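Look at one such:
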Amino acid sequence: MSPLVERLLGEQKPDGGWNCFESDVSSFDSTLGVLEGFVEFNARRGPDARVDDAVDRALEYMYSRNLFRGLRSGEPVQEYYLFFTYPNRHNYHVLRILDLIRSSGSAPDPRAAEAIEIIRSRRGEDGRWLHEGTMRGRTPFLLEERGEPGRWTTLVATRVLNWWDAAQAAA
């Protein structure tokens, strides 16, 4: 197994996620990055029981917080978790985690329903989603203008909702 995967498996927090800072509490942002790496690792190398278990524990951490809420307060941890930006950088948002879960082959979890409704509520009358901005960082050229229909956001939101709706119809 990759030394990096071994290290990350050893750094998983008791609550199921990861944090890049010295903390006993996980972070949505840090956990997303590790999950993206683990999903890609399994896609390239084949399923690994230890990685699968770590992914399951991390998803439980996220789902237990409805994908964006603080455990104690019940409030959104960060407002930007509810805004769909592109390009993706280190920042977390509910559309990004749901697309990752979809791409991993996992079934939707009912605890994602609130996040799904947030995504659904942002759909414009023309069936598209607006580009809500670009996070700070070097951007050599803009692919989309803030406030205009976003091709990337529309693509990702459409495939997430199709995945969700197909699972609901099959249930």
Notes: The radius of gyration is 16 Å.
